[in-house]
């Protein structure tokens, strides 16, 4: 009975939340204006508000079609959705420009069901009731101020009230409960947000639900742990998500916000910490501040990831890297693990936390990678970096193979670390050289590797004061030369001068920890170049790339950030991402692949010390050739096929 009732109610709710709910009730309306003194949030477990559905849908239509949506077109869309749900003429009844709200209340009694309350702004109570009269059967129950309807085997009651912003229909599943719905939802409807905002009050969850949530978090952590999966690289890449599971019990509330604008769709997730909890301690341990290192990164970078690591995170990343190496070499004795941990720990103690990573299209083909980090005591940190690479020894080759999607048991790398291997701009450089050895059965993997790097990988580093810059790829020497000049104070073309990156860097800087910036036009150009290089470009692929290459799209980027807030209201951890119009329109195809690339570094940043591997989804598959597309996605309707997808 409860399930049947809930299903009917949710059908009505879907109609309402899509802008299809509404016309006024033909019952006496309560015309008094509700005041804050009469509102109540007692027993609320979760709530959702859609601030201005009409405007949001209009903006989404603009993003999807590229042209402004006329009011008649928006109304037609709303009416079409309503017609599919059995509600005819919805736009004549509902005022979709005012906030729509829903709340979930705690069950009453041990065997009670969750209570659902809904508020829908209407143009007239009479019209809304007429709409419901056509969709539902009237019920003899209800009160003087409520209309009652049969909803499955249950009762749906609706009351019409006059709020400061106009007439509103409040709905509940219990006779006489519409007034209570008003008391609960009135302050929630006043949330100042035009898009969608939701809050889940985890600390108010019943004990049984809380226990299930904790169990789910434990199971997810187990799933993401080393030893539980056959892909150590994927496990390492999701380490931040695995760490997040341990803080589920520390979250007092989870906020979700979504908003559409000419820039695209922005999604935000904010976890509010319980005072004195492990999450609150983690927020306090973070090292937020201005985004560092953009002036050191090439201006044609496709992806830039910048972060400020706290000592706590450096220690956690060191331990996770040791676990990653151990998973790649399961027969390695424990004393070797201790040597890795010691060398990486000694190196990490010189880091100040600021680090930046970038990937770019390399001159002459392939993909270049590089970055920078800050270190105290330059001479000692240089020696510690070399010692760290030497300590990793043969395991470094397995790590590189895994990062490139190669079989570490099949493809072996000879590793050599050298100090003072050369000079750039008058500065001594150190090098890490990785030479692959290819068995006869790995001809396809060899071809893909040579497209990326040539016959070997050389990672070159230079230390200038407290800045360490590094580059790898076919054009690593030229790139490192430019980075050294920038580190010495010369003005060079860089990401700092990119208007799109500067806008992303300067937006909401308070408490920022990490920033990921992915140029959609840059990735599209790279994919197009690879299609051309391998003679695999088709008219369909040209059409697929076109939205990302139009002149107005050159500043479009997928931007993702993490932030921490610490104030009198408590501590919060925020995760946000912006999906621009071209990627949003192609989210099921190439746009989705781009979003995963840009977002992935917030869940699993590049390893440190630097590993010269681009993001997995940008690494071409082994089947390079005219008949086989080398980069994701493979076609207009296909999912991406890159090695890391």
Shape: elongated
Please tell me the overall pLDDT.
83
- Class by alpha and beta content: alpha+beta
> Which ranges are low-confidence, i.e. pLDDT below 50, for 5 or more consecutive residues?
1-39, 624-645
Largest sheet: number of strands, sense, barrel closure: 20 strands, antiparallel
Intertermini distance: 44 Å
DSSP strand content: 25-35%
How helical, in percent, are the residues?
Answer: 25-40%
Number of DSSP-assigned strands: 20
Rg measurement, Å? 28 Å
Q: Mind explaining what this structure looks like?
A:
- This protein has 645 residues and is an alpha+beta fold.
- The chain is built from 20 helices and 20 strands.
- It has a 20-stranded antiparallel sheet, with helices on both faces.
- Helix 17 (520-533) packs antiparallel against helix 18 (539-549).
- Strand 16 and strand 17 (467-472) form a beta hairpin.
Q: Short description, anyone?
A:
With 645 residues, the protein is of the alpha+beta class.
Show the helix and strand layout:
Layout (H helix, E strand, L loop, with lengths): L1 H16 L26 E7 L2 H13 L5 H14 L15 E6 L9 E7 L3 H11 L1 E2 L7 E6 L2 E10 L2 E7 L5 H12 L6 E5 L6 H17 L8 H6 L1 H6 L6 E11 L2 E10 L4 H8 L17 E6 L2 H18 L5 H15 L2 E11 L5 E9 L2 H15 L1 H10 L8 E13 L2 E11 L5 H11 L3 E8 L2 E6 L3 H12 L11 H8 L5 E8 H14 L5 H11 L7 E11 L2 E10 L1 H5 L4 H14 L42
Antiparallel strand pairs: 1-2, 1-8, 2-3, 3-7, 4-5, 5-6, 6-7, 8-9, 9-10, 10-20, 11-12, 11-18, 12-13, 13-17, 14-15, 15-16, 16-17, 18-19, 19-20
Helix pairs in contact: 10-11, 11-12, 17-18
């Amino acid at each position: 009975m409860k399930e049947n009732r809930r299903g009917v109610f949710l059908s009505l709710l879907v109609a309402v939340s899509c802008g299809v709910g509404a016309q006024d009730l033909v019952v006496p309306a309560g015309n008094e204006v509700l005041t804050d003194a009469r509102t109540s949030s007692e027993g609320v477990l979760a709530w959702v508000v859609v601030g201005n559905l009409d405007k949001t849908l209009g903006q989404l239509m603009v993003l999807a079609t590229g042209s402004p949506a006329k009011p008649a077109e928006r109304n037609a869309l709303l009416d079409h959705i309503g017609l599919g749900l059995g509600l005819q003429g919805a736009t004549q009844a509902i005022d979709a420009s005012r906030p729509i709200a829903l709340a979930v209340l705690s069950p009453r009694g041990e065997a009670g069901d969750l209570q659902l309350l809904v508020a829908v702004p209407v143009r007239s109570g009479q019209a809304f009731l007429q709409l419901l009269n056509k969709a539902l059967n009237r019920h003899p129950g209800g009160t003087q101020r409520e209309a009652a309807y049969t909803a499955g085997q249950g009762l749906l009651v609706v009351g019409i009230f006059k709020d400061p912003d106009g007439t509103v229909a409040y709905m509940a599943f219990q006779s006489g409960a519409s007034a209570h719905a008003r008391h609960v939802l009135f302050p929630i409807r006043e949330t100042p947000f035009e898009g969608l905002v939701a809050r889940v009050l985890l600390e108010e969850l019943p004990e049984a639900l809380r226990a299930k949530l904790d169990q789910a978090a434990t199971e997810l952590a187990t799933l993401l742990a080393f030893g539980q999966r056959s892909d150590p690289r994927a496990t390492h890449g999701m380490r931040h998500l695995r760490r997040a599971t341990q803080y589920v019990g520390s979250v007092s509330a989870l906020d979700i916000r979504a908003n559409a604008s000419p820039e695209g769709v922005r999604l935000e997730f904010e976890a509010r910490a319980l005072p004195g909890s492990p999450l609150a301690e983690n927020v306090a341990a973070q090292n937020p501040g201005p985004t560092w290192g953009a002036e050191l990164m090439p201006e044609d970078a496709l992806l830039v990831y910048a972060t400020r690591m706290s000592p706590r995170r450096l220690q956690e990343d060191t331990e996770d890297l040791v676990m990653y190496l151990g998973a790649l070499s399961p027969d390695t004795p424990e004393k070797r693990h201790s040597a890795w941990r010691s060398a990486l720990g000694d190196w990490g103690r010189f880091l100040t936390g600021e680090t930046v990573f970038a990937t770019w299209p390399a001159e002459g083909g392939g993909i270049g990678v590089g970055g920078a980090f800050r270190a105290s005591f330059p001479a000692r940190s240089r020696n510690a970096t070399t010692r760290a690479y030497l300590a990793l020894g043969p395991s470094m080759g397995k790590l590189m193979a895994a990062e490139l999607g190669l079989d570490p048991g099949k493809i072996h790398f000879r590793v050599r670390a050298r100090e003072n291997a050369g000079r750039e701009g008058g500065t001594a450089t150190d090098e890490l050289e990785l030479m692959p050895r290819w068995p006869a059965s790995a001809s396809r993997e060899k071809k893909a590797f040579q497209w990326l790097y040539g016959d070997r990988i050389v990672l070159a580093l230079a230390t200038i004061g407290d800045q360490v810059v590094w580059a790898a790829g076919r054009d690593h020497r030229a790139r490192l030369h430019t980075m050294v000049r920038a580190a010495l104070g010369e003005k060079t073309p860089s990401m700092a001068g990119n208007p799109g990156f500067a806008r992303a860097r300067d937006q909401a800087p308070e408490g920022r920890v990490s920033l990921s910036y992915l140029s959609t036009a840059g990735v599209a150009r790279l994919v197009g170049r690879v299609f051309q290089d391998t003679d695999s470009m088709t008219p369909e692929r040209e059409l697929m790339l076109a939205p990302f290459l139009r002149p107005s799209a050159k500043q479009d980027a997928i931007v993702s950030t993490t932030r921490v807030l610490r104030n009198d209201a408590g501590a919060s951890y925020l995760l946000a991402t912006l999906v621009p119009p071209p990627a949003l329109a192609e989210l099921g195809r190439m746009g989705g692949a781009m979003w995963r690339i840009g977002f992935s570094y917030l869940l699993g940043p590049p390893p440190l010390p630097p590993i010269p591997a681009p993001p997995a989804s940008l690494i071409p598959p082994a089947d390079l050739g005219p008949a086989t597309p080398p980069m994701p996605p493979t076609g207009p309707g296909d999912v991406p096929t890159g090695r890391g997808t």
